[in-house]
């Protein structure tokens, strides 16, 4: 049951998504706590099976993806907030445990689902959406498709 290793990201990602939909705020303390717990879980698994490469890969992917989101947020500040960047940081740690295909699929799904949600929001007269659920749902789908 190696998928249970990703349980911290699942729990915190769900909580962040619900909180973002309700309040449009992503608590950074939740993200940091989830990241640390997920990293400790990955490291504990690596102690047992020697999969330290996966830990390094996951951390690198999470940092690179968060840096890309930061760059996009700087290019157009009203489009992405820092909560979206931090959610990407946490979700990237879980997605990063899979092969690179999962990361590419995650970004593809994030773009497609984000566009679909924005279209529905605009049809309903809203100007923006809570993006943390899009990030999390895309990451969850990518992990499930790569399992």
What this model shows, in words?
Residues 11-113 form the Prepilin type IV endopeptidase peptidase domain. With 147 residues, the chain is mainly alpha-helical. It has one domain (2-146). It has helices at 7-23, 28-49, 52-75, 82-95, 100-123, 132-146. The longest helix is centred in the middle third of the chain and has 24 residues, at 52-75.
Features:
single chain; mainly alpha; about 80% helix
Explain briefly what this protein structure is:
The chain has 147 residues and is mainly alpha-helical.
H/E order of the elements?
HHHHHH
Given the helix and strand composition, which structural class is it?
mainly alpha
How would you sum up the global shape? globular
| Helix percentage | over 70%
Largest sheet: none
The low-pLDDT segments are none
Number of strands: 0
Measured by DSSP, the beta-strand proportion falls in under 5%
Mean pLDDT across residues: 95
- How far apart are the first and last residues' alpha carbons, in Å? 11 Å
Radius of gyration: 15 Å
User: So how many helices?
Assistant: 6
The overall number of domains is 1
GO molecular function: aspartic-type endopeptidase activity
EC number: 3.4.23.43
Keywords: Hydrolase, Membrane, Transmembrane, Transmembrane helix
Domain Prepilin type IV endopeptidase peptidase: 11-113
Furnish the topology, listing elements before pairings.
Layout: H1 7-23, H2 28-49, H3 52-75, H4 82-95, H5 100-123, H6 132-146
Helix pairs in contact: 1-2, 1-6, 2-3, 2-4, 3-4, 4-6, 5-6
